[in-house]
Specification:
Elements: H1 6-17, H2 25-35, H3 41-56, H4 62-65, E1 72-77, E2 80-84, E3 89-91, H5 99-112, E4 123-127, E5 133-137, E6 147-151, H6 160-165, H7 171-182, E7 187-191, H8 197-205, E8 214-218, E9 230-234, H9 248-255, E10 262-268, H10 272-280, E11 288-292, H11 299-309, H12 314-324, E12 327-333, E13 339-349, E14 355-363, E15 368-370, H13 374-380
Helix pairs in contact: 1-2, 2-3, 9-10, 10-12, 11-12
Length: 386
């Protein structure tokens, strides 16, 4: 398929676009014949497959998205494509003829989700119909050419035993996480981009008692817990005229009126942090969410910054945090590039009134190492011996 010259493909595409009808091998053969190109069966089928993927699928990226265990597909330019299969980034062997091809794909995928992507709006962050999350930035804003980032949803939620088997945490660590959920602790799953926060949170929510009602609030729907009673709310960006936006902050307030046993904010990254802290201080035990942070110790500063931007004073933010949060589950990548749960931490209010996080447990490859705040964590979990 890669032997079809780009000029031939573009000419066939132009001829088919000028004449309405379904994309069939017969029409492709006619377009090839009209352009003076070879019309052998192999050529016709190759061109038809390329055009079909260009029109209906993800073009050259389609085969990458179907690979087992692929979580991310990244395009930095026509001939610079990378994938992540859980062990860090690796270069892919596929590519595009030119930047125009990447741009067409980005615009078509964005349009399939009802979003505009052009020179007036050169970036988009959307969820595609199959659940894949697309982020795209067009040139010249992206200096080297159109840039695509595709986050591939897992078709089945990880279980804690599977995470243990994959080396993401030791067996004793899985026991501790189960206790965090069972004891209805309010917790945050933190880490950098691509560290597995969504996967771990989905696995933990799948452990929630089936009699409880989970209400999810997300900017883009990614959480898929295996649970019989899940209500999912998804934010909506403004339309071309700048109207119709439904923010996470609005959805958190709506979720509080939906009788949640567990209120979950998929990614806390803005003013909704104030509403989440307030919700966790009004009797909604067991609430949780994810947060970008470099380490567990950096979580108070991160929440403080978000709260200040939303108009909540520093002292009030720390006071709310101390009363609302029980545990932080921090994730990261090891030197081998694999995603792992690294540590559990608990908040502690200092004499100044500010909150710091103390390490209660650090996770190594096959064991859990007790930290200075191990006793405080045990108390939150109901004096669990570990």
């Amino acid at each position: 398929m890669n032997t079809v010259p780009p000029a031939v493909l573009d000419d066939v595409r132009r001829r088919l676009a000028g004449d309405s009808g379904d994309l069939t091998p017969h029409r492709v053969a006619e377009a090839l014949r009209a352009s003076g190109s070879p019309v052998g069966d192999a050529t016709v089928l190759a061109v038809h497959d390329l055009l079909r993927r260009d029109v209906l699928g993800a073009g050259p990226l389609e085969e990458l998205l179907r690979l087992p265990d692929v979580t991310d597909v990244l395009v930095n330019g026509p001939d610079d494509v990378w994938i992540d299969r859980g062990g860090g980034l690796e270069r892919a062997s596929v590519g595009f003829p030119d930047d125009a091809s990447v741009r067409r794909l980005a615009q078509r995928l964005a349009a399939s989700a009802g979003r505009r992507l052009d020179d007036a709006t050169p970036h988009a962050d959307v969820r595609l119909p199959d659940g894949t999350r697309l982020h795209a930035v067009l040139a010249p804003v992206a200096r080297a050419g159109t840039v695509l980032s595709l986050r591939v949803p897992r078709h089945r939620v990880w279980t804690l035993p599977e995470l243990v088997a994959a080396g993401a945490l030791p067996p004793d660590g899985a026991f501790l996480l189960e206790e965090v959920v069972d004891s209805r602790c309010a917790f945050l799953v933190t880490g950098g981009t691509g560290t597995g926060k969504t996967s771990v949170l989905s696995a933990l929510l799948s452990l929630v008692d089936p009699r409880e009602r989970i209400v999810l609030v997300e900017d883009a729907s990614e959480l898929r817990p295996e649970h019989p009673h899940v209500v999912a709310l998804e934010a909506r960006p403004p339309n071309i005229e700048g109207a119709g936006e439904i923010s996470l902050q609005t959805l958190v307030r709506q979720a509080l009126r939906m009788r949640p046993d567990r209120l979950v904010v998929g990614e806390v990254r803005g003013a909704e942090v104030v509403d989440l802290l307030a919700a966790l201080n009004t009797g909604h035990r067991g609430g949780c969410g994810t947060l970008h942070a470099n380490s567990a110790a950096d979580v108070p500063a991160r929440i403080e910054a978000l709260s200040l931007a939303a108009g909540l004073p520093r002292e009030a933010a720390h006071s709310q945090l101390a009363a609302a949060l029980d545990v932080v589950v921090h994730l990261g990548r090891g030197r081998d590039g694999r995603r792992r749960v690294l540590e559990l931490a608990v908040p502690e209010r200092e004499g100044s009134g500010l909150v710091s996080l103390r390490i209660a447990a650090s996770f190594e490859a096959d064991r859990v190492v007790r930290g200075p705040a191990a006793g405080a964590l045990a108390a939150r979990l109901g004096s669990v011996a570990w």
